[in-house]
Protein 1
Amino acid sequence: MATPTDRRLPQYRPDPDGTHPPLDYAPYRSTALRHPKQPLVLLPQMLTEVTGPLLGPGRLGELDNDLTRQHAGEPQGQRIIVTGRLLDGDGRPIRNSLVEIWQANAGGRYRHTGDRWPSPLDPNFDGLGRTLTDDDGRYEFTTIKPGAYPWKNHDNAWRPAHIHFSVFGSAFTQRLVTQMYFPDDPLFSQDPIFNSIPDEKARQRMISRFDLDRTEEEWALAFQFDIVVRGREQSVFEDEEEDE
């Protein structure tokens, strides 16, 4: 039987102060309508919630991680390659984990019935992708750099270009959601979602790094974005609500 000092047991590491946004953040107006008003209630996980459904390779399509080849034609916009690693708090790879992305197209519009602003949909781009991490915790997507879009949170409000990520453990109850931004975006200063993160270092971990080595000549720029699920270098995670 394992003892409290058994090194095989995971060690609890509290999130560093300022890593995650507050549930109620006045500049992000919709948080006032949806943040919890009562103390949270712990719901213990049962066996069925931690053992299934399985998220194995049989559930992935051949082109699920290449959002530029899911239709007969090519999508509009700047083609990019997004790579990174999924890591635990000790820097060890998290293998065979499902990583999903969703994003706006190059014009800043989602393929969603609730997105009606006058930017055209792209018939060759759905904005959805998924893949499994390899034995080194690595993932890779080929996609289109998303555009900025208006979202009516405040006067002349525009969201910086970003890609939503979700990562899973062995079941749907083990899901974490974050956003990846791009370097040197001029909209950072006026975006309350980005600026709701109190700690500046944690905020910077949401910004991808341009990767010249992975850039493919005459084909695609590349950006690197690692996701750390716990510890001092933990990524910023959020609820699963949309921000449109």
Protein 2
Amino acid sequence: MRNVCVVGVRTSWRTVADGEFFCPDCGGDRNYLRRTGRRRLTVLGIPVLARGDAGPILECSACQGHFGLDALDHPTTVRFSAMLRDAVHTLTLALLAAGGTASRAVRDTAVTAVRAAGSADCTEDHLLTLLAALAADTGRMTGTYQAATGGHCGHRGLDPCGTALAIELHEALEPLAPHLAPAGRESLLLQGARIALADGPCTPAEREVLSTAGAALTLRPEDIGRLLAAAARSPRYRG
């Protein structure tokens, strides 16, 4: 004899929005439907009484799994790649501004770092142009850029304690930090250290930039010091 459900609760869903998210079950970028619902008591399958609202939830269009809205806090793969690219780009520019671009080793290391982060078309001229624009537009750097006579800036005078610089680094790195494992956050800081060390020991200005970046990546001060000390001793991080 077949069992018959006499009394139950049925949810009627309504789609209110859609988009793309990182599906926790699929493990990749998927389309989603944002849905709200109404619960109703059913008797013999017939809705008879309202039992309140349901959701809102996100429904994966691929696996049909239901997730809370906090699933949107996790960036999509595309968004994460863009965040990482912007973080490396910002840190690189800050270090070049603090340490100068007179050294060929520094310029080459900076270009390599930015390209590896996803900006495959980055060139030395591109970075130097951005540095000159920062100097002209914000006044955060002092000294003279010789862009018209080779593009090399030997000045090492970015104010490392400047509020504007600290804000830029925090804006680029803080949103990324929760989505990186500790090893990933350390690796990002060490990429910066590699640029700073390409022409010799870190200057105080470069160390200040790296310390600001480490704080934005939620690394403890003692861990920042340990990583920078290890980088200074290791040929791997020196140009």
Protein 3
Amino acid sequence: MSSPILITGAGQRIGLALAEHFLAQGQAIIVTYRTRHEAIDTLAGKGATCIHADFNNDEAIAHFIEQLKSHTNQLKAIIHNASSWDCEANNHDYAALFDNMMRIHAKAPYLINLASADLLLNYQKNTGHPADIIHLTDYVVEKGSPKHLAYSASKAALDNLTKSFAAKFAPAIKVNAIAPSLIIFNEHDSDEYKAKTLKKSLMGIEPGCAEIINSVELLLNSHYITGRSMPVDGGRHLK
């Protein structure tokens, strides 16, 4: 019986890297995307099941869950990677910004986890191994951010959901978080921004998506870790 891994927001960056990694291993995957980049066509050509999902309202989330269940009756893992790096400076409608950040980063994972519990439990029953939920949060959960208030609050909510779901679903489903700081720069980032950002961590490097892939693999391979947040921040908390 096929046991796919669901990766949300897999059209680019970390989500895409995770999708490519699992496909290279021969692991079945289901991915969501908001914008159909060329990479999605490539993933589909390699065998990934690709589902459009915007998570822009409750109906869209419910529709995605229906589509998900039409493709599989069990899941090995869910990796909640879908995210929006939005901020108050770019949005003067603060109420809408706050609602959007909470919906993408907290409400969608909350609803998907609850609705997909039976799929994860089916995997555990059929294999004898715990299934996994992994939330991609953020370093800012630890200290907040004066420039990304709503974003930080929503990621903190997701971090809290990690603990609650771990307690609710144990021992059949492990639930953990990964809290990254800088992983990869954007193409449009200036040299000045890059230099400033690199100085914020002890390691002082752009580590690349392999750091997240390694962290995900560690959590998937463990039969014991649950309810924890793994920092992947280069020692930034000590600067």
